[in-house]
Amino acid sequence: MLTHLDSQGRANMVDVSDKASTVREATAEARVRMLPATLSMIVAGGHPKGDVFAVARIAGIQAAKKTSDLIPLCHPLMLTSVKVELQAEGEDVVHITARCKLSGQTGVEMEALTAASVAALTLYDMCKAVDRGMVIESVRLLEKVGGKSGHFVAQVSA
């Protein structure tokens, strides 16, 4: 059984050395709700700081690669692929999808969640001067493939 507690009940990093190396992939999402005028400005390319989606995408990719530096007890992983996509959804939401992949002994859920979260935070940071009321919401794991625990697909939210 995997646990982050040792025999004395102290937190430690899980030993994955006996686990088989398999292809593992995880997809996470985040949504950022904002004023319609803010989203229009981003989509039109009129933001004074430049291409907001491009900067947020790069920030998400960088964050995925540094997840073990940010999340205690998280294994440092050699990711083989990180994709972060940002898309306008309706008139006031940016939908962020982050997908991480590797061949290894432990999963990439935390990397995908970190990528989506940091992309959302970067979007907020770049736009806060024009819209301090933005809300980061619905950060969640959408799908996980590979590994001992098998395939996970999140329930569709209403």
Account of the 3D structure:
This protein has 158 residues and is α+β, with helices and mostly antiparallel strands. It is built from 4 helices and 5 strands. The protein has a 5-stranded antiparallel beta sheet with strand order 2-3-1-4-5, with helices on one face. Helix 2 (52-65) runs antiparallel to helix 4. The chain is elongated and about 55 Å long.
Q: What structural keywords apply?
A:
158 residues, 4 helices, single chain, 5 strands, alpha+beta, five-stranded antiparallel β-sheet, elongated
Rg calculated over all Cα atoms: 17 Å
Biggest sheet architecture: 5 strands, antiparallel
User: Going across the major beta sheet, what is the strand order?
Assistant: 2-3-1-4-5
Structural class: alpha+beta
End-to-end gap: 34 Å
Give the averaged pLDDT, no decimals: 88
Q: Helical stretch count?
A: 4
List segments where confidence is low: pLDDT < 50 over at least 5 consecutive residues: none
Helix content: 25-40%
Report the principal-axis shape: elongated
Count of extended strands: 5
> How much beta, percentage-wise?
25-35%
Order of helices and strands: EHHHEEHEE
